[in-house]
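Hi C.,

You asked whether I'd gotten around to modeling the 208-residue construct. I have! Everything is below, sequence then structure, no commentary in between.
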Amino acid sequence: MGDAVPDPGAVFQENHSNWWEGGQNIKTGGRLVVESKKEKTEGKIWNAAAGFIPAELEYSSGLVSTGKSFWQEDGIFEAKIKFDPVKQVASSFFLQGEQNSPRVNLLEMGTKNRIGISSLDGKNKIAAEGIEISNLKKNKWYIFTMKKDGSSIAWKINDTEVLQLTNSTVNFPLHLNASSLVTDEIPGSKVPVQFEIDWVKCYTRKVK
């Protein structure tokens, strides 16, 4: 999917317990795996009053992004992802532009299970527009699809349309991101937590 790099700009939550190691928590070979591990790390956390501040954290995790390699504004974005939420870890496959907000969530699972659009309001609080998907069967693979045509954005799960929104704020090229963010102490029996993606496909209209 591109570069596996720590990206503080991808942080939405203020309270988190991990730092993104530079590619060490990313596995490839048949499928992409973003892994969250129990290990002490030194990094930075976001504080609304002070910005990014140094901290010693209890977990490491990973983020992979196409920010340096692939951008697309309109078209179809889809991925085959294992729906296996762990409530202490926010695992997301999302699209965003140059700025952190807004972001289009192909899938967010764990702390929240939903699809749609997330953005930060004037008070740095998350505003989400979309639907909950907690009724999906756990430990199963699903194909999540998002089609964007200007301000019209639609989501499908396994070829069934489940959400359609009109949003004129997402009017710029987007790049792909997959990340996991530890938000609370993970039970020892669930560590490491794996966010698994089998494949990713993107389509756009051919320019004549």
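If it helps when you're writing up: The longest strand covers residues 32-47.

Thanks,
B.
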